[in-house]
Each structure stands twice: as C-alpha cells, then as structure tokens.
Design brief:
Layout (H helix, E strand, L loop, with lengths): L5 E4 L1 H19 L4 E7 L2 H16 L3 E8 L11 E2 L10 E9 L3 H7 L9 E9 L11 E5 L8 E4 L7 E4 L1
Parallel strand pairs: 2-3, 2-5, 5-6, 6-7
Antiparallel strand pairs: 1-9, 3-4, 8-9
Helix pairs in contact: 1-2
GO molecular function, one term: glycosyltransferase activity
Protein name: Phosphoribosyltransferase family protein
Pfam family, one: Pribosyltran
C-alpha cells in the first residue's frame, strides 16, 4: 500500500516563504556588514543558498554560505564538520538553516560547532516547523508551521526545480 502524497506548498509559495525569511534575516541584521548562513547538508544547504541569493538582491550585507556536514540517521554524532574554519564566523551573525524542524535533534547537533566561538548572534531558520520537539531547539525564522502526526513525513524539495515544493506523506 502506497501512502498518499499531498503537496502542502507549491513552488511559488516556497519562493515567497524564502523571500520573507530573507527579509526577516535582513531586518534583524541590518546593522551588520556580514551574515553567515550555515546550511545543514541536503535541502538545508540548498535553502541557505537560496536565502543568500535573495539577501544579495535586497540587502547590502556580505552573505556567506557554509555547509554543515552531519549524518542525520546516526544516534551518536561524531564531531560535526564545517566546510570553513572557525575564523570565518567568529564575531559574526550566524543563521543555521535546515529544511524541516521536527524533533530538534538534527539542529541540536548542527548548533554544536558554534557554541565554542564568540558570535554576535546565532539563529535558526527552517521552511517547515512540525512542532514535535524532543530537544530544546526553536526556529527564529519559520516559513510554514505545520501540525502533523508522528507517522506523517514532510519532504521539502528545493534542489529539483520541477518538483520544488513541500509534500506531506
């Protein structure tokens, strides 16, 4: 039996959410000269890239994108690898970006590399917040808040231009 797939957000709606989040990031960082968008590998990194594109259009901020490499499936996370050194984000505003905030586990791991470095601010941005938190992680920038059952799966597609959207299965 195949589970039914329902499109929650269309391509246009996702692009509107990304644009709105970018404006919110700019509003909260307009006094800064630079913002670091650290995307969790996968669709979180793609979202960080798309946010950077919009920020470059609307704001005079120097926007840098970095990737947070981690294994979302493992129970114990080895040290998190960033594709840039600590000096890149020291004394900067950092936004950790992921596609979906579900239990908060992935984002809790993703925040770890930034906790030992002095920052101006550390915020979290997601396209979908599912409200099933087991870890004390909250998103500061949310595209869409969605109440789901624990058995439902939310899929955010940003890397495939033809299927771009948010789906519930």
């Amino acid at each position: 039996m195949t589970a039914e797939i329902t499109q929650i957000l269309t391509r246009v709606q996702v692009e509107q959410k990304i644009r709105r989040i970018a404006f919110e990031i700019y509003e909260n960082n307009f006094e800064q000269s630079e913002v670091i968008l650290a995307g969790v590998s996968g669709e979180g990194y793609v979202l960080a890239q798309r946010l950077a594109e919009v920020l470059q259009q609307i704001a005079p901020l120097d926007t840098k994108v970095m990737k947070i490499n981690l294994d979302k499936t493992t129970q114990q996370q080895p040290p998190i690898h960033l594709d840039a050194g600590d000096t890149v984000f020291t004394n900067k505003s950092v936004v950790v970006v992921d596609d979906v905030l579900n239990s908060g586990r992935t984002l809790a791991f993703a925040l770890q590399p930034f906790l030992n470095v002095p920052l101006i601010s550390l915020k979290v941005a997601v396209i979908v917040d599912r409200d099933h938190k087991r870890y004390p992680v909250a998103a500061d920038y949310i595209g869409y808040k969605l109440s789901t059952t624990l058995t439902e799966h939310v899929q955010v597609v940003l890397s495939d231009e033809e299927r771009m959207g948010v789906y519930l299965q």
